[in-house]
Design a protein that fits this description.
Mean pLDDT: 92
Distance between the termini: 26 Å
CATH class: Mainly Alpha
Number of domains: 1
CATH topology: Four Helix Bundle (Hemerythrin (Met), subunit A)
Largest sheet: none
Strand content: under 5%
Structural class: mainly alpha
Order of helices and strands: HHHHHHH
Bound molecules: protoporphyrin IX containing FE
Low-confidence stretches: 239-245
């Protein structure tokens, strides 16, 4: 039992460190290599996009799905509230992040939704928003019948995992696409081409590796049955506040 707790703690701390590094790297990439932030339709507005997407759909989302595994003295109700609250912040940030990319495209007459990245991205954001709304209605509001909660639970869990994986895929494809579009080299460009592996490409590629590692550690924790909190597996029809203690 003891070694299970120790290995959980090691992986959980690793996930926290990787999540922190992901946010730091993406902020530094946009904030220093790409010139900083603004909300004026320029490239500086686009720079919000990677920061908000990685922070919301990767790091906050990953932390929210791990909440049921962390050994805190919290009741099931408080875990549900924290899970939904963290995901609400993530939904808001991810919608802002997508608007940053959409506004930038509109302001510069760039077509919308033409790339594989934008297709996986828009599906991820739509599923996430739907999942959050259905989850709130079904698991936090008091009038949902127990039979419906129990029916929805495995679908919610599977869909939650699918959205996280889609968020990782979208982030990696977005990083790759940004580098291919930006680091073109040649006359008129103040950067070396991507295939010369300039320092910026090395840095952003490393961000991609950090995102992938964070995702793999979160999925390892989620898939390990021994760290499941069995007391949270069954839904109950007790009144909300009875579960709050
Ligand atoms: C979960 C993460 C992400 C999601 C859901 C997502 C979603 C989207 C969407 C929906 C668009 C289309 C905007 C439009 O058509 O007007 C877009 C564009 C774009 N995104 Fe992301 N994105 C994510 C992460 C990233 C990251 C980390 C980068 C890295 C810089 C990035 C780079 C881009 C680029 C370069 C575009 C413009 C080109 C294109 O439309 O493909 N994205 N993204």
């Amino acid at each position: 039992m003891m070694h299970l707790r120790v290995s959980f703690n090691v992986l959980y701390i690793l996930s926290m460190c990787l999540g922190f590094l992901c946010v730091m790297f993406v902020c530094l990439w946009s904030g220093t290599w790409r010139g900083g932030f603004a909300w004026d339709g320029s490239f500086l507005q686009f720079n919000w996009h990677p920061v908000l997407m990685v922070t919301s759909l990767v790091v906050l989302y990953g932390n929210a799905v791990l909440l049921y595994r962390v050994p805190l003295p919290w009741s099931k109700w408080w875990r549900k509230v924290a899970h939904a609250g963290l995901l609400l912040v993530a939904v808001v940030l991810c919608l802002l992040g997508v608007s940053a990319a959409f506004d930038f495209h509109s302001a510069n007459n760039i077509p919308h939704l033409y790339s594989l990245h934008s297709w996986t991205g828009i599906v991820t954001v739509a599923l996430f928003t739907l999942q959050w709304s259905v989850g709130l209605g079904a698991f936090l509001l008091p009038w949902t019948p127990l039979a419906f909660k129990s029916f929805l639970k495995p679908i919610h869990v599977w869909m939650g995992m699918a959205i996280f994986i889609l968020g990782l895929i979208s982030s990696l494809s977005g990083i790759n696409e940004k580098l291919l579009l930006t680091l073109v080299g040649g006359n008129g460009s103040n950067t070396e081409p991507y295939n010369a592996l300039p320092a910026e490409a090395l840095f952003a590629n490393s961000l991609g590796i950090l995102v992938a590692m964070f995702g793999l550690v979160v999925l390892k924790i989620l898939f390990s049955k021994e760290w499941n909190n069995t007391e949270f597996e069954q839904e109950s029809d007790r009144p909300l506040l009875a579960d709050a203690r």
